[in-house]
Amino acid sequence: MSTEVKAKKRSIKLTLPEDEIMCPGHLACQGCGATIAMRYALKALGPKTITAIPACCWAVIDGPFPYSAASIPVYHCAFETAASTASGISHGLSSLGKTDVTTLAWAGDGGTFDIGIQALSGAAERGDNMIYVVYDNEAYMNTGIQRSSSTPHGAWTTTTPVKHYKKGPKKNIMEIMVAHHIPYCATANIAFPEDFVKKLQKAKTMKGMKFIHLYAPCPTGWKHPPRNTVKIARLATETNVFPIYEVENGVYKINKRIKTPKPVSEYLKLQGRFRHLTADVIDFIQQGVNDRLTRIEKLEQAFGANSQDSPTS
Amino acid sequence: MKKVLTGNFAAAYGATAAKVNVISAYPITPQTTIVEILSEIVADGELNAEFVKVESEHSALACCIGAQATGARTFTATSSQGLALMHELIHWAARARLPIIMVNVNRAMAPGWSIWADATDSISQRDTGWIQMYCENNQEVFDTVLMSYKISESESVMLPALINLDAFFLSHTSQVVDLYNEARIDQFLSKYDPKIKLDVDDPHAFGALTSPEHYYEFSYKMHEAQINAIRVIKEVGQEFGKIFGRTYDLTESYRCDDAELILVSYGTIAGTAKEAVDQMRNSGIVVGVLKIRYFRPFPTEDVIKALHPAKKVGVIDRAVSYGQSGPFFNEIRSTLYHESTPLYGFIAGLGGRDVSTHDIENMVDIMQNDPAQDLIWIGVKNVD
Questions:
Q1: What's the confidence (pLDDT) of residue A8?
Q2: Could you give the percent of chain A with pLDDT greater than 90?
Q3: What separation, in Å, do the N-terminal and C-terminal C-alpha atoms of chain A show?
Q4: Is A310 an 8 Å CB contact of chain B?
């Protein structure tokens, strides 16, 4: 009787598309968050998608010439040109009357927060029609773990060695993109695929620049066992290190409200890149996490669906 | 239909005549009027194209790359610093075998800031794999933009082309240009329909990680395509002549057949040299001009043939390869390696300094009286 109930409980309705558009046989490291990310992204967007991929882990993951793991057209482009190449793809398709194809720019944090930010800003301001996903693993992982402007305070990288760990917070790319008044900005996390897929599907129905900041752990660079990728990703949101929210036409909405947040130490202690941190630095990080969440909550209060003020745009 | 047009308008009308699908460009003096007129033409619906007004030249070329890869015909234009900013993507477009057409208004590189004519900007893109040509007048600008689509999109070529015109001497100087009628243009240039493109029904990965096992052959095939372009440029130049009455080749010989002295040059200096040659011929000096239209592919055989009658050859460069000599001079010297013709390498007109018929007579005087020299600076003043 009890097993029957359990079995019944287990038969949860599958909310993710069953199609596997991404093939096995890719070149990612074990436990790569960016690979999980693409698998879900292609499930969400379907085969009528063309992607522009700049220099980043995915330039390698997809496979060497003449192979490709993605099963959709992939345009490998220069490091700083994910957005500008995608602008060209999007305008090229529309100039030829092909309006049923989604253009996806798919770049890492280095290619987005740093070298590609000018092209991204330009494409966003113009309202070029694309979905831009930054899969954020918080450093230049493809070149061997160098700090980027997305590397968080306290992290070890090969250019921020232990004695001189990264000082200062990571760049707030979401607020930068919100400031462009684009129709849709959202954070997502590979540990919450239903939310990520739903957001991509929503973005697909909208015109203009849609931006998704996707959290994607890197076992190689973060120094954690491959089996902990999803666990660490989930903890990032459960500790509010990486809150899940969206800004649709200027309206803020926190999609995952954490009732009893876990302390950041639980998230930090699973990763070798934070192993050197002392209690006072961990306190400082906790304070930063609290402050950033408060800021998002205040923005939601001020510019959420239930707020008195109408959103600015 | 004949119109009085600047070189920049001729370039813009050339792109319009080619019915490009996507234009992406960024303003820079003295190219800006190309962008201005094209935005007006597109906004007025005279050309059914999308104009992507990007935030830099780098994005302009990246955008053309993305659009061309979908099977759209694209156009961009720039100058000097803008061309230099594009450099990474200039390589990219050629290695991706995308027949993008770009007009470059030859302008000097900074510092000091200079907006005037100098070919150093385009010469610096020599080894990128682009077809590279230089225009003498505005009719040639219009004709070459149109012809370039046919040349670059040829299945045996599939390489982008850079069309150069001198800052102000052409970009902002008005001349009579015959724009032809649409029916004849359609007869000449068919729709762009590449065999391989970004297509969801036939998915491929483009430009993936390439091992030494394959990269070498890609480079070989690019060179092969450049060599194929020599034949295609000639064929298209002939066909163009049949339809429009003006035939083009990789070089143009002016009064060279019996010439004892031949001056080699490109761009507007070639035009001035023709005028100087007429004047000198009247005074009994038997001189001619070989205008080089295409720097890449370099027309080696044609140059050897054209320069064969000359007892002496002088090359006029509006650019310098620092620590060596004039870039076109280097090409000519290499081409004539097996000949014993004395060669004179003249540098003139850098940063837009005027090169007059008098300067050219001066060069011929040096060729008549002085021993051959690789590097002769014409008109250098106040140098310690």
A1: 57
A2: 92
A3: 57
A4: no
The residue-averaged pLDDT of B243-257 equals 97
The rounded distance, in Å, linking the Cα atoms of B311 and B239 is 34
Contact B252, B293 (CB under 8 A): yes
Q: Rounded mean pLDDT of chain A?
A: 95
**What pLDDT shows up at residue B383?**
82
Q: What residues contact B45, with CB distance under 8 A and at least 6 apart?
A: none
| Both structure tokens of B165 | 């015109």
The answer on B139 and B281 residing in a single domain is no
Question: At residue A25, does pLDDT exceed 70?
Answer: yes
Cα angle A60-A105-A35, degrees, rounded to a multiple of 5: 40
Please report the DSSP string for B242-264 in residue order. Answer: HHHS----SEEEES-TT-SEEEE
- The domain total for chain A is 1
Query: Which DSSP state fits A13?
Result: P
In DSSP terms, B176 is beta-bridged to B4
Q: Is B268 exposed, middle or buried (0-12, 13-18, 19+ CB in 10 A)?
A: buried
| Range(s) of the domain holding residue A131 | 27-303
Residues making up chain A, counted from first to last: 313
Give CA separation, B227 vs A185, B66, B156, B332, in Å. Answer: 49, 26, 10, 18
Taking contacts as CB-CB distances below 8 angstroms, the residues of chain B near A124 are none
Cβ neighbours, 10 Å, residue A256: 15
What CATH number does the domain containing B276 carry?
3.40.50.920
Q: Is the peptide bond before A66 cis (omega within 30 degrees of 0)?
A: yes
Q: How many domains does chain B have?
A: 2
Residues of A in contact with B71 (CB under 8 A): 92, 96
Taking the CA atoms of A110, A113, A118 and A119 in sequence, report the sign of the dihedral they define: positive
CA distance A181 to A177: 7
On average, the pLDDT of chain B sits at: 97
* Rounded Cα–Cα distance for residues A260 and A258 (Å): 6
Which residues of chain B have a Cβ shorter than 8 Å from any chain A Cβ?
21-22, 24, 49-50, 52-56, 58-59, 62-72, 74, 88-89, 92, 198-200, 203-211, 214
B214 is in which domain, residue-wise? Answer: 2-244
Q: How far is CA A231 from the centre of its chain?
A: 16
3-class SS of residue A298: helix
- In CATH, what number is assigned to the domain containing residue A260? 3.40.50.970
Say whether residue A90 is in contact with chain B using an 8 A CB cutoff. yes
ipTM greater than 0.85: yes
- Which has the closest alpha carbon to A75: B42, B198, B44? B198
Phi-psi region of B98 (alpha: psi -120 to 50; beta: other; left: phi over 0): beta
To the nearest 10 degrees (0 to 180), the angle between helices B212-244 and B87-95 is: 90
